[in-house]
Batch of 2 targets.
Target 1
Amino acid sequence: MKNLGILLSGRGSNFEAIANHVAAGKIPGARIAVVISNKPDAGGLTTAKKLGLTVLAIPSKGLAREEHDRAVVAALKEHKVDLVCLAGYMRLLSPWFVQQFPRRILNIHPSLLPAFPGLEAQEQAFAYGVKVSGCTVHFVDEELDHGPIIVQKAVTVLDSDDEHTLAARILEQEHIAYSEAIRIVLEGKYQVVGRKLVRAVTAK
């Protein structure tokens, strides 16, 4: 059984989707060991408590980034976390944090990276006038929204869209993509060649 650690800062809709997929057996061999937020009032913590999961609030306010990261890493290691999943975690991880879990931290971003990294990605895409947007699940490295890509889902931008309707449709795909990426990583049947994740071909 592999232990997932979820980090979130807000309502945690991606976390909720992961939890539902774990409960339904759609991510075989996985359990959520701990849900951690840097914001004690995060809606995702309330959801996690209702699901009977272990929750921790480790407030980041007033702390240096690495000081806070050390507290979070200590909690993840205490709960024997195998894979860290960022689900709307609104903090940049220090290089030290990333080094504690090499290729074992996942993030989801609401654009087809490398397009539109950073905040307000859906608004950036809409303002730019792209015809296709989507979401990306990737490994976390020391750079923002940069690590090797695991799964991407494309979403067509409709003429009738505004940034809110586009964001809502992207979010639907995020809920599918994240669990798919977790399955791939936990199965371990892949290698990263340069920036490219190559899945092993199974004989039929």
Target 2
Amino acid sequence: MGLFARLFGRSKRPVIARLKPSDADDVAFLHGDNFDRGWSVPECENLITDATCYGVGAQLPGEKTLCGFLLCRIAADEAEILSIAVARHARERGIAKAMLARGIAGLGVERVRSLFLEVEAENIPALKLYRHFGFEEVGRRPAYYRKADGSTAEAIVMRRNF
């Protein structure tokens, strides 16, 4: 990382920790800012407190709010990434990568053997991230996502075995 980035805070590493109910406001904001249909605060709180869910949040040093989150749901020995989001001002700093690494480690402790996700086929940065962690395409869902303008987008279903 260059001198400019270090001087102006881009080298600050996020603190990654398990989500807690008090993070629901931040998670709802981040989800709404990243996706066409955001989750409400009560929906986020329910997911965070659900015993079948595993979630982590990222916070940059000196900031009071989360700059990212990852939420997964566990069923038997499988899990699915429900959502992962990073605040616009915090992108391209490795935050999603750090959260996904922590999430995979935590799910491994929970004895998860396979991790699934769906990602919009045109989301190249996300596809690159998932492939970095060993996810492979296992299917496609045409017209799966509905966009704000009424159009649809294809989803790629991916899996990573532990």
